[in-house]
Amino acid sequence: MNHRKLDADFAIAGQITPSEVQAIADAGFKSILCARPDQEEPGQPSFATIASAAERAGLRAVHIPVSGGLTEGALIRAEQAFKDLPRPIFGYCRSGARAGSLYSAIKSAVG
What we know:
- This protein is an alpha/beta fold.
- The protein has helices spanning 21-26, 47-56, 72-84, 97-110; strands at 4-7, 10-13, 31-34, 60-63, 89-92.
- The chain has four helices and five strands; from the N terminus they run ββαβαβαβα.
- Strand 1 (4-7) and strand 2 form a beta hairpin.
């Protein structure tokens, strides 16, 4: 599981599997944010499967699927998630780009 820290509160990665969730918890992350829509690609684990593994590992998980550009709804949900979720947060999607874009947009908006 490769990931890239954007800052002390947020890291991004490509698609994860349920078997990697415990390693995410062991690495010190407290929450998972999924920016990938379910069924975007055949064989991709569903968010529900990842969320179940996160719960078993003691992590909070939130799903803010982004397809195409960032919508107002996604930004509103992301802003609330960043307020509510324990940090640091592990964000993922297919490549990590959409999760990173959500974080960057919120960081820019709130300073």
